[in-house]
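Fold this complex.
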Amino acid sequence: MGAPTMTRDNLGSSHAGTRDWMLQRVSGVALVVLLFLHFFVLHYATEGPVTYDKVMARLTSPAWKVIDITFVVFALYHAVNGFRAIIDDFVHRPLLKLILVGSLWVTATGFGVLGILTIATLTVAP
Amino acid sequence: MDAPVRRPIDRPTFLRRLSPGFIAFALHRLTGVLLGIYLFVHIWVVHHLSHGEAAFNDIMAVVQSPLFHVLEIGLLGAVLFHALNGVRVVFVEFGRLVAREVMGRTIFATLVLVAVLTLVGAVPFLRLAFGH
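Structure:
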């Protein structure tokens, strides 16, 4: 065998970002499963078009709330990590990078709160 | 094979950049950006559920027009490519798909599978768009 196996300890400065890299794979594989379920249930197992009653029937059940909140968190994390990878490729000035990645996280957190609150608080109207 | 050209900085030529690996990378990034933007819009559209049935139906009337049902086929294609190519990348990094001899073939297989699944999956969207 040639070069020794690269680990966190002998990667030099390139160890920075290995956690983001690994979490992008983990969240990606999870999203393949969650997104398949999401697409299948919405577009193939349910006859279209999408209506308020059909969506509420799912989103008022605790199991779907848990699945969809997990989905929102994983999807937003995966999206932020992907956008951040693009910023890393093209933006090299530290301050500009900080501003862009910072606003990315603020935006994603805002949409995350909006999504989670929507799912968590939905109840059938009295 | 041409003799290697010496350059001050070795920049790949445009044709070398159009290798299967680069095409897969570029498509993964393009679909990733589109899906990321879609995700934000999707959360904003669906949050109208919490404003009641009328508000939800008003916004859904916009995004369930025939044009949007056709665009959803593009969404399906983008999702399928990003998912299947992502799985391929995981097998490149953790499995045995990194070998030069199989790279081009697995990328081609990914694109064929995406095309077939998109065409099959398009049926309910086309029925909604054109009324049957």
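Chain B touches chain A through 33 residues (CB under 8 Å).
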